[in-house]
From TrEMBL:
It comes from Pantoea nemavictus. Residues 14-105 form the TfoX N-terminal domain. It comes from the Bacteria. Pfam families: TfoX_C, TfoX_N. This is TfoX/Sxy family DNA transformation protein. SUPFAM superfamilies: YgaC/TfoX-N like (SSF159894).
């Protein structure tokens, strides 16, 4: 597993004014997020910023390289643009453009939260949507605010047959991943929490007997 990538650390340091920047592995690189909203991506040790109005204006002057990755052998161009050497050296402009990318991503995320139903998220069926409604989680926004673990605990209280697969499905729904495509470190962390939680529940039930 990749750790302490120098471009990740450099990006976090130089863009710290945006807020608490976190990174997670994705598609062979790293997604950079603030409050779980992706605004940049690191691929092959290069930083790419999400498209925004300000970045489009800058791109018209500088012609930045777009991010291209291969999907089933075919090249796919994403709306992310490479931070070149000149932009890295202009720290003030880089921060301004990064802030614009973050705002654009946040606006899109807010619109998505309002328009989507729970069943529209990855991994979530109509049946699971109805179960979430029964435990008071009636919107995408509320699911994201509650988080996968607390949402799972609420469902588990409703139905003791709810298992690990549902926990992974909830995490994927929140992060935008198919359950099978969750990063390995997240799967391992959730699996460890799941086993610990089951042991705690078993111990509590034993004491109540």
């Amino acid at each position: 597993m990749k750790r302490n990538n120098p471009v990740v650390e450099q990006s976090k340091a130089q863009l710290a004014a945006l807020g608490k920047i976190e990174s997670r592995t994705q598609f062979g690189g790293y997604a950079l997020t603030v409050e779980k909203v992706i605004f940049a991506y690191i691929n092959e040790d290069a930083l790419y910023l999400r498209a925004s109005e300000a970045l489009h204006v800058y791109n018209a002057q500088r012609s930045l390289e777009p991010l291209v990755y291969r999907k089933r052998g075919m090249p796919v161009t994403l709306s992310y643009f490479k931070v070149d050497k000149q932009l890295w050296q202009d720290s003030e402009r880089l921060l301004q453009l990064s802030a614009s990318s973050l705002r654009a991503a946040q606006d899109e995320a807010a619109t998505r939260l309002v328009s989507l139903r729970l069943k529209d998220l990855p991994n979530l069926s109509l049946r699971l949507e109805l179960m979430l409604h029964k435990v008071g989680i009636c919107s995408v926004r509320l699911l994201c605010e509650t988080g996968s673990r607390q949402s799972w605990l609420k469902l588990r209280a409703l139905n003791k047959h709810i298992g690990l697969k549902t926990l992974l499905a909830l995490e994927g729904a929140i992060s935008g991943h198919h359950e099978a495509a969750l990063p390995s470190e997240i799967r391992e962390e959730l699996y460890a929490w799941y086993l610990k939680t089951l042991r705690q529940h078993a111990a509590a039930e034993h004491l109540q007997r």
